[in-house]
Write a structure and sequence with these properties.
By secondary structure, the protein is of the alpha/beta class. The chain has six helices and six strands; from the N terminus they run E-H-E-H-H-E-H-E-H-E-E-H. It starts with 5 loop residues before the first strand and ends in a 5-residue tail after the last helix. The mean pLDDT is about 95. This is NAD(P)H-dependent oxidoreductase. It holds the Pfam family FMN_red.
């Protein structure tokens, strides 16, 4: 029996002017779309305009930008976070989005595509791996990393090493799909107690 397709949200974490994030995000979304187990949405935080001041309680009426994005994150069965490394960590815009949607992440898997200088964004991913378990999320072991990212993509946004990049993406997606199905099935049987 063929398993149902998972809703995959690819989240572009940087909102900085001139950012590179849309390039690897579009590439990883295209790689996911080639598979038969994902329906893909790309969410660009630069187009969402989430407020950066959170209310005292998330039980109060939420700003329109927050309520507009909520259904996209709520329906996701799995996430790919595309993040740069700023000052040895991930951008504040990404943490802001994480904090607005505490319940949307619960009992769902998260994978990472990172880019940066020599470290390739891996310090940003390491920091994110410490945050998501606190939200009752599972982070998959393998990620896709682009150190010195300008050298890894051509002018059309294609990887310079398409085979190696596709192999890394496949490994990550295989793990994400496994966790996505396991956790989706579990949530369908019984609401997550966290």
């Amino acid at each position: 029996m063929r398993e149902r397709r998972l809703n995959l949200a690819v989240l572009i974490g940087s909102t900085r002017a001139g950012r590179f994030g849309p390039v690897p995000a579009q590439w990883i979304a295209a790689e996911a779309a080639k598979r038969d187990d994902f329906d893909v949405d790309v969410i660009d935080l630069a187009q969402v305009w989430l407020p950066d001041v959170l209310p005292e309680s998330l039980d109060r009426p939420l700003p329109q930008a927050v309520t507009d994005l909520a259904p996209w994150l709520d329906r996701a069965d799995a996430f790919v976070i595309v993040t740069p490394e700023y000052n040895h960590s991930f951008p504040a815009s990404l943490k802001n989005a994480i904090d607005w949607y505490v319940d949307a992440w619960k009992a769902k898997p998260v994978a990472f595509v990172s880019y940066g200088g020599m470290a390739g964004g891996l310090r940003a991913v390491a920091d994110l791996r410490g945050i998501f378990p606190g939200l009752h999320s599972v982070t998959v072991r393998d990620s896709v990393c682009f150190p010195n990212y300008q050298e890894h993509f051509d002018a059309e946004g294609r990887p310079a090493d398409p085979e190696g990049c596709a192999t890394a993406a496949k490994t990550m997606f295989d793990q994400l799909a496994w966790w996505g199905h396991v956790l989706s099935d579990a949530r369908a049987r019984q609401p997550y107690p966290g």
